[in-house]
Task: structure prediction
Amino acid sequence: MSLSKQAGPRSIALIGPYSSGKTTLLESILHICGEVGRKGNVNAGTTLGDSSKEARDRKMSVEVNSAHFSYLGDDFSVLDCPGSVEFLQESENVLIGVDAAVLVCEPEEGRSITLLPLLKFLEIHDIPTFIFVNKIDKAKGLVADLFESLESVSNRDLVLRQVPIVSNDVVTGYVDLASERAYVYKEGLPSKIIEMPPEIAESEGTSRFAMLETLADFDDHLMEELLDDIEPEKEEIYSLLTEDLKNGLVVPVFLGSAENEYGVRRLLKSLRHEVPSSIVTAQRVGLEATEDTPVAQVLKTYMSSQGGKLSLVRIWSGKFNDGETFSAGRIAGMYRLQGAKLEKITSASVGDVVAFARMEELHTGDMVLNDSQIKGQRAEKLPPVYKFALFSDNRDDDVKLSAALGKIVEEDPSLVTEHRQETQELLLKGQGEIHLRVALERLRNKYGLNVHSQKPKIAYKEAIRKGAKQHARFRKQSGGHGQFGDVQIDIQPLPRGSGFEFKEKVVGGSVPKQYISAVEHGVQDYLVEGPLGFPVMDVSVTLFDGQHHAVDSSENSFRSAARIAMAEGMPKCSPVLLEPISKVEIVMPSEHTSKVNGIVTSRRGQILGFDTREGWVGWDVLTAMMPESEVHDLIVDLRSATLGVGTFRSEFDHLQELTGHLAEKVIQNAAMRH
Ligand SMILES: Nc1nc2c(ncn2[C@@H]2O[C@H](COP(=O)(O)OP(=O)(O)OP(=O)(O)O)[C@@H](O)[C@H]2O)c(=O)[nH]1
Ligand SMILES: [Mg+2]
Result:
């Protein structure tokens, strides 16, 4: 039995920028391998992947599609990831569990930079990577220029494996540089071998030599052969290509068109020969594959429309049987997923990618095992960059809403929910507007909840700039017992961040001891909403005198007197609005730094500094203080200035005075809400 057979099926992820053709490539592969009879199309909504309403409506992937195929006797599972940067977390979660990634991109050299965040992730995790330059049928520029621009964004060496044959500005076929065979594309059919066209011989020679030189950088024997002008054996070239891919030294680049099935068989052949086995991958991620220790890891969680949880796992070691119990619970059903189709199975072993049903304690990234000593890698959570406040039409839906939100966060761990006390809002945070809209549609389509969103409120506060003394009396005579409380207070500002302070300096018992805490409560009652309409911060209130009545005074009457004193005294203290300021850290390719600088300044940001981004050649980090209200849609501008790759993280830093017309607007809006 070959190593790959012992190691079970291999697994690949299709990743790459938005709309580069990953789902179409999956469809082509499944068609070629006989898994789908008629080839589906993204635009017609007939692909095996993207079956959810949210994906079909948009003609884009919004979550991972899982499928299986067998090519010339070798079994593969394939995980087709959404390309939009707003769904990046899906790719990262899945990449942890695959033997190789196929990075699908378009033949547009100006957009190579959009591959960078993924390339970086692949490099950090040492994931063997293939690049498939798709849509070669509509390539405009020269492949050589494209290759150069791809090289500029990759730290690993790229190896061009094919050169295009072009006639009348259209790519009609290719020369395979390893085998030196020429082919013409045949739509929907295997490419046809042809004589090497004489006009291509020169560029083929140059490209082939470049490929060999790159390989020779990692192999002395090949280097000697090249220096001595000895033609290396084909076997040697193939074996170096396989080794170097496995060791993350080189990234092979293939050309084709998923839509027309050009070059897809060539890619499949390489996958078959070059993708490492799951045993090798287990070693790479620090695990050991054995026959009898079951170890699996969750790459993605699906919630079926009936509400049942399906955990898509990669099996790293051992064998799993349906019905067995692990620390994370019992496997209550085992399936192979072919798109949305569930195929029931009873067991799964090393290399498989299968779904375990109803393991409620299991979350994306978790390991399924019986030995808590075994630790796997997992993708870090991306910090949220955009948020909505949610509200439902019907208050009675609130309990249902929070249960449904729990489920959609299970499926998509890059969503975060938060009940924000300060503003009394339910927040949904994520990676951008489309990301959050898809989540809302899921709530509607899957859970029947009509949920609306709005821009979250900003937790403005207010403070005072000067002090004032105030006298107030609360008196009521209404039959029987009256009410009487009389206080004199001194209101003073405190430094920013001090909070609230209450003191008493009453002499001679003018306010008896038992009423003092009622005065403090009265002051606090008022501080919930100051003269400008916001919670008051950083004040000191001293009770220094007052009067009482032997019969009529009570805690309530002093509490009311204190509240009145605050209401009358505070407006005299020059109230001022405070707005929350966040510290933001923005990362972007340095060519865009000056543009981003402009965005930050136009959003009232105060730049604290620039630096180079650690570990990211050609990237900068910009730190700034920026009002929270300006951070809200910062990501929109940032992405449009950086071809989508710039991002940021932010956290509350401090409160800062806001004056002028912006403050007036905030105060007016608050008044209107009352
Ligand atoms: N001309 C041409 N168009 C293609 C090719 N492959 C895909 N397309 C088109 O590109 C568009 C996007 O295709 P998808 O397969 O959905 O791309 P994707 O990478 O899965 O997109 P996301 O998952 O949303 O990132 C569709 O309109 C396809 O018809 C190709 O080889 N040539
Ligand atoms: Mg897709």
In short: The domain at 3-284 is CATH 3.40.50.300 (Rossmann fold). Residues 18-24, 42-43, 60-61, 82-84, 134-135, 137-138, 257-260 surround guanosine-5'-triphosphate (ligand 1) (CB under 6 Å). The longest helix spans residues 201-216.
